[in-house]
């Protein structure tokens, strides 16, 4: 599993499409999952539809986000990337650990755009 989490000041940011960086977190040994590697990556310049392709090209399997537009979510899911929206503004390692334990609390989608707006 390979997670991508949009960041601001070392924590999840509320707006997926306009983050300055992503934490890429790799998880090994799914029988006893644990975080293997954390890398911070700068995304390409913001343009509609670019982030889903970039994440796919970087072998991301899961995205944990605070907020995301419906169109961006659909583009990610079309590439078989699992999307979690409404996650709390926490450190990326905390979010992935909570997800792996089945304890990731989700709230409202913090994006607030309608389905025609692209937040990626």
In short:
This protein is of the alpha/beta class and 120 residues long. The chain has helices at residues 50-57, 70-78, 92-100, and strands spanning 2-8, 11-12, 21-28, 34-41, 62-65, 82-85.
Overview of this protein structure:
It contains 3 helices and 6 strands. The protein has a single domain (2-100), classed as Nucleotidyltransferase, domain 5. The longest helix has 9 residues, at 70-78. 22% of the residues lie in helices and 28% in strands. Strands 1, 2, 3, 4, 5 and 6 form a 6-stranded mixed sheet that branches. The chain is an alpha/beta fold. The two termini are 22 Å apart. Residues 113-120 have low confidence and may be disordered. The radius of gyration is 13 Å and the shape is globular.
Rg to the nearest angstrom? 13 Å
Number of discrete helical segments: 3
Tally the beta strands.
Answer: 6
Q: What is the succession of H and E elements?
A: EEEEHEHEH
Average predicted confidence as pLDDT: 87
Q: Write out the CATH superfamily name.
A: Dinitrogenase iron-molybdenum cofactor biosynthesis domain
General shape: globular
């Amino acid at each position: 599993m390979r997670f991508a989490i949009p960041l601001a000041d070392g924590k999840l940011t509320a707006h997926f499409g306009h983050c300055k960086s992503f934490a890429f977190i790799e998880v090994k040994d799914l029988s006893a999952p644990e975080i293997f590697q954390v890398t911070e990556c700068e995304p390409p310049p913001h343009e509609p539809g670019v982030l889903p392709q970039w994440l796919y090209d970087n072998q991301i399997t899961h995205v944990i986000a605070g907020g995301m537009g419906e169109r961006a979510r659909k583009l990610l899911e079309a590439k078989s990337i699992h999307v979690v929206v409404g996650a709390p503004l926490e450190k990326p390692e905390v979010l992935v650990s909570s997800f792996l334990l089945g304890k990731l609390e989700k709230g409202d989608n913090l994006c607030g755009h309608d389905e025609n707006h692209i937040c990626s």
